[in-house]
Amino acid sequence: MKLNEIFEKTKNVRLIAASKYVDSGTIKNFFHLGIDHFGENQVQALAQKKEILDNQNLDIKWHFIGTLQSNKINLLIKQKPILWQSCNGLKIAEAVNKRLDYKLDTLLEINSAYETSKSGIELNKAIEEYLQIQEKCPKLNLCGVMSIGQHSKNQKEIKQSFEETFKIYEALQKYGAKICSMGMSNDFELAIKCGSNMVRLGSILFKN
């Protein structure tokens, strides 16, 4: 898929370039093509790339989209990402909240694929956990949910995992949820059809 096609298909949602496998030079090139939101899976990589690109005065909005290890909390906070997309429960939320000295926009990661290889809160606990984090973590601004589609060749199964997340998102809108982050390179079009308003694209972008 060509870049202009990707831009056309994502014109009504927020496009996050998942830049895990590319260097700062490639990020700079894509920034000049019109992408200014980038997501990193590892805190160390985010810090290194951010430092290089900050020195070039590029106004990049960084997202953290990977599993946060407790020994990397301080480093993540120092980066001041625009959005922490992968808060996967109350325990890590409280640990981050305790060390924050600013308000951090955050998404609750939901495991709607029912896959043990994926992190995220179980569907049946998601709403309760979301409200607990809101109550106990005042420095986290919970503003929506994130999930990864089911790893399957069956479109119905993938669609179901997105629909399950979207139902949770709808239920949380009255509590301030505005972001439903679903969809990656292989399934973003389906995710958008299921209600996603933020997609995280890596390989489909950077292989162009």
Automatic annotation (TrEMBL):
<dbReference type="InterPro" id="IPR011078">
    <property type="entry name" value="PyrdxlP_homeostasis"/>
</dbReference>
<protein>
    <recommendedName>
        <fullName>Pyridoxal phosphate homeostasis protein</fullName>
    </recommendedName>
</protein>
<feature type="modified residue" description="N6-(pyridoxal phosphate)lysine">
    <location>
        <position position="20"/>
    </location>
</feature>
<dbReference type="InterPro" id="IPR029066">
    <property type="entry name" value="PLP-binding_barrel"/>
</dbReference>
<dbReference type="GO" id="GO:0030170">
    <property type="term" value="F:pyridoxal phosphate binding"/>
</dbReference>
<keyword id="KW-0663">Pyridoxal phosphate</keyword>
<feature type="domain" description="Alanine racemase N-terminal">
    <location>
        <begin position="33"/>
        <end position="206"/>
    </location>
</feature>
<comment type="similarity">
    <text>Belongs to the pyridoxal phosphate-binding protein YggS/PROSC family.</text>
</comment>
<comment type="function">
    <text>Pyridoxal 5'-phosphate (PLP)-binding protein, which is involved in PLP homeostasis.</text>
</comment>
<dbReference type="Pfam" id="PF01168">
    <property type="entry name" value="Ala_racemase_N"/>
</dbReference>
<dbReference type="InterPro" id="IPR001608">
    <property type="entry name" value="Ala_racemase_N"/>
</dbReference>
